Amino acid sequence: xxxxxxxxxxxxxxxxxxxxxxxxxxxxxxxxxxxxxxxxxxxxxxxxxxxxxxxxxxxxxxxxxxxxxxxxxxxxxxxxxxxxxxxxxxxxxxxxxxx
Length: 99
Fold this sequence. Notes:
Arc Repressor Mutant, subunit A; mainly alpha; 78% helix
């Protein structure tokens, strides 16, 4: 999965667990497509500070997913919609529940 799409999916699920500042930086970088320098100029901080913050936010989002597996389970459930065999669906749901 493309990095951009992956982090946006994680942000949709876990964004409310970030601080306001983290949400703002993430949204400007990933949703508004601003450069690190543009964000730094807006907040009157250094480009490296913004880069470090974006990296920390990415690590935080991946860490939440590695503990909670919500995105993974959501994708597994969406894949069930493609299965016609009720027995196979049952087995997959059981597997998802027993993670």
